[in-house]
Amino acid sequence: MPGPPTGPGCAAPSSRTLTSTMPRHAGLIRRFTDVRGRAPAFAAEAPGRVNLIGDHVDYAEGLVLPMAIDRSCLAVADLGGSSNRVRFESLDLGDSFELDLTRPIEPGLHADKPWAAYPIGVLAGYLDDRDPSTLSGLDVLLTSTVPIGSGLSSSAAIELAIATLIEHILGIESEPLDRARLCQRAEQRFAGVPCGLMDQATSELAECRHAMLFDCRSERAESIRMPPSDQLATFVIDTKVRHELASSAYADRRAVCERAAHSLGVRRLRELEPGSIGDVGLLPEDEQRVARHVVSEIHRVYLFAEALRSGRLDQLGPLMAASHRSLRDDMRVSCPELDAVVRAAQTLPETIGVRMTGGGFGGCAVALVDAEAASSFPQRIQMAIGPSLDPDAFPVRASAGARGWVLPPRNREPMR
Ligand code: ADP
Ligand code: MG
User: Fold this and answer.
1) How many angstroms does the Cα of residue 241 sit away from the middle of ligand 2?
2) Which domain holds residue 347?
């Protein structure tokens, strides 16, 4: 089992002061102070997320039901660096880069460091209509407990942490959804990922102890209380495999969805009613399959949200099982490792529901587990899977979205 939760968890978002009860924050502040010879003046934190149900439907303007998790990106900064320059450093990658603010900030800068696209994209979003000198000397140190590239949205965590940090430095406060959209644009334009808004919206808007029903058409979010922790635990099971196919398949499924919508005379597949699934029979086979997935998955998200609201936990498992089957057989985005993890978890009596989560072709499954058996779940899932795979199963708690702090001078001293 991993150590104690390391993310935003449920600490009051209004708390403006970092205290020594937040050791990870104190550690990063100390690190910045030790290396830079001065204490940071700002801090921000933004969580990753796990999607409980509703995959490969965001680009069809469907419904998704993610929750932010207690793994997060944490960033500290000040404006004490070199004039007209900004600097970003990732502790996790042991890497850093600088930008010259007197030059245009465009996609492709530091192309040899793929991670640079995320901070640069967010920075560019804030400097679009602002004098770059407002951020002269910006010096950022970040670290994250969100596993990188596993489908838990380490990318949105970085983006929202940097966005929140920059807003605290500039003394501005955007509408939360606008902040999420700026981060989405950063990922699309600078990292070249044609992502929907789910990850950024969750990292920004999620509420502690709640999942977040997000309507990708209206861009409205509704918090839905998760069952109490003495009843149900949520686990991520990271297969630790990542197949090359992931991003090309995402683009392919998205294109087929658009073709299917066009063939059916609708703008997006979201517009189809669950009952109209029979109408897809005349489409080419690949369009039939994605249309069937999208329409049925959106309906499952709706039913899952209803079941959560009314505390009908017995309804969650069948919906998750159907979601996995649909992603595997119709959308064809699962892989042997994800299928093995899901099959193994389904053999355990404490599993309430389990499915692959995210884009697929590796990455993670999400399991809802009877709280009484939660502590032994990681060992039991490993035994059920056997030696052919070595996944990492860890519990996650529904956590709050991004928050930031202006560090009061007394707190700028390293906390020891
Ligand atoms: P996911 O969001 O599912 O984790 P992505 O491929 O969307 O996967 O984003 C992962 C990328 O985000 C990494 O390859 C890296 O460029 C960037 N990233 C995530 N976490 C960090 C980190 N701690 N330090 C630097 N870059 C990071
Ligand atoms: Mg991502």
Assistant:
1) 16
2) 232-396
pLDDT for 380: 98
- Is 195 a pocket residue for ligand 1 (Cβ < 6 Å)? no
The predicted pLDDT at position 276 comes to 73
Element spanning 50, H or E: strand 42-53
Cβ neighbours around 177 below 10 Å, total: 16
Low-confidence ranges of the chain (pLDDT < 70): 1-21, 278, 410-416
Please tell me the distance between residue 159's alpha carbon and the centre of ligand 1 in angstroms: 10
Residues 170 and 251 in one domain: no
Find residue 214's DSSP bridge partners.
64, 221
CATH number at residue 94: 3.30.230.10
Rg (CA), the chain: 21
Q: Are residues 386 and 406 in the same domain?
A: no
Q: Is the CB of 158 under 6 A from ligand 1?
A: yes
The verdict on 30 and 177 lying in the same domain is yes
* Contact yes or no for 347/338 (Cβ under 8 A): no
Catalytic residue numbers read: 199
> 90 and 176: one domain?
yes
Give the distance (Å) from ligand 2 centre to CA of residue 177.
18
Q: Is residue 213 part of a domain?
A: no
For residue 361, the model assigns a pLDDT of: 93
Q: Tell me, what's the pLDDT at 9?
A: 60
**What pLDDT, on the 0 to 100 scale, is given for residue 346?**
98
- Tell me how crowded residue 1 is: count the other CB atoms within 10 A of its CB: 12
Ligand 1 atom closest to the Cα of residue 116 is 16
**In this structure, is residue 63 part of a structural domain?**
no
Give the pLDDT confidence score for residue 18 in this predicted structure: 62
- In this predicted structure, what is the pLDDT of residue 378? 97
Strand-pairing partners, residue 49, are 68
Å from CA of 160 to ligand 1 middle: 12
Alpha-carbon gap, residue 231 to 98, rounded angstroms: 48
Residues 44 and 155 in one domain: yes
**In a shared domain, residues 345 and 373:** yes
| Total number of domains constituting the chain | 2
Q: Which ligand is nearest to the CA of 146?
A: 1
**Ligand 1 test: best mutation among 58, 158, 357, most atoms within 8 Å of CB?**
158
Q: Is residue 29 part of a domain?
A: yes
Q: Which residue CA neighbors atom 24 of ligand 1 most closely? A: 90
Structure tokens that stand for 260 in this block: 């299917």
**pLDDT computed for residue 3 by the predictor:** 36
391 plus 404 within the same structural domain: no
Residues 360 and 240 in one domain: yes
Structure tokens at 376: 């032994």
